[in-house]
UniProtKB/TrEMBL annotation:
Organism encoding this protein: Dibothriocephalus latus (Fish tapeworm)
Name of this protein: RNA helicase
GO MF, one annotated term: ATP binding
EC number per UniProt: 3.6.4.13
Family matches, as PANTHER family: ATP-DEPENDENT RNA HELICASE DBP3
Length: 320
């Protein structure tokens, strides 16, 4: 295989790889846009002024960046195009021609360009630009290992974990009454020491008036079975693992206590990080959690940001 054929094969493989990555990114972007469209349709009536301002800033930044990126990339096809005959090098045979003066020789060494043959395909500058962008993204996505954090050397200010106060109606319930009530909650089963008794209403869980009004406005008249037991446990500052079927209300089971904790925290200062972090196993679940958290956060005066992979990070950085 000649050197020119080797270059052609490499370029063809890179372009095929770029096309596969582009199709994959397009599929991910399509699925992501469908999810965001569903969220945006429900949030059109409650647009945060700050979010609207940040969207305008992002659009203006993209309009300024795109022309600059287009001018920085030069088409590579022009660099391999054949040169005019007056500029091409001639081969020195050692005997000057009688008609033409001896021409200067040009030796092809490492790093110099070789003129393309007539049957070699030339690719557009758009494909070359996309290839460069894909290579740059691959370099940016390289993983970097983070060192272990020694929490013993970090001073964490104390904060309150227990916000739950058992109301008299729940405190008067006997063990048999609690057992019957848990059976009525779709056969709820509990394991652990001194587990709090399940509540019956939102007010018994100790939610604030703003949060209670938001729950009523969203159509949540009373807690679901998993929420009846999870709310007093998490409000008490206890660790919990909740297992329930899809659509049972697990998201609100930890978001409602989270909002109560955030309401009791001191305001953030310059350079402070987030007050709470929620981790989800998938991007779809992250968007679903973000949708519910944003609804409660707007009612309580908190800002919520969703960070996930498979899409551009510029907007996510702006939200953070």
């Amino acid at each position: 295989m000649s050197f020119l054929s080797f270059i052609y094969v490499q370029r063809r493989e890179r372009i095929e790889r770029w096309r596969r990555e582009k199709r994959l990114k397009l599929d991910v972007a399509t699925a992501h846009s469908k999810l965001l469209d569903g969220i945006k349709k429900e949030e059109e009536d409650e647009i945060d002024p700050l979010d609207a301002y940040m969207q305008e800033v992002n659009k203006e930044a993209q309009r300024l960046v795109e022309p600059a990126a287009a001018t920085t990339t030069a088409p590579e096809a022009d660099s391999i195009a054949p040169k005019p005959e007056s500029e091409q090098a001639s081969v020195d045979t050692g005997e000057p021609s009688s008609n033409n003066p001896p021409a200067k020789t040009r030796q092809i060494g490492k790093g110099e360009l070789i003129e393309a043959e007539n049957d070699m395909p030339e690719y557009s500058s758009e494909e070359e630009e996309e290839d460069i962008i894909a290579t740059a993204l691959a370099q940016l996505q390289k993983k970097e290992k983070l060192g272990a954090v020694d929490h013993s050397r970090i001073h964490y200010p104390p904060f309150q974990k227990n916000f739950y106060v058992e109301v008299p109606e729940i405190a008067k319930m006997t063990k048999d009454a609690v057992k019957k009530y848990r059976l009525a909650l779709e056969g709820l089963r509990v394991r652990g020491k001194d587990c709090p008794k399940p509540v019956k209403t939102w007010v018994q869980a100790g939610v604030s008036s703003r949060l209670f009004a938001c729950l009523k406005k969203s159509g949540f008249e009373k807690p679901t079975p998993i929420q009846c037991q999870a709310l007093p446990v998490i409000m008490s500052g206890r660790d919990m693992i909740g297992i329930a079927k899809t659509g049972s209300g697990k998201t609100l089971a930890f978001l409602v206590p989270l909002m109560r904790h955030l309401e009791h925290q001191t305001p953030l200062g310059p350079g402070d990080g987030p007050m709470a972090i929620l981790l989800t196993p998938t991007r779809e679940l992250a968007l679903q959690t973000y949708k519910e958290a944003r609804r409660l956060g707007n009612a309580c005066g908190f800002r919520i940001a969703c960070v996930y992979g498979g899409t551009g990070i510029s907007e996510q950085i702006a939200e953070l």
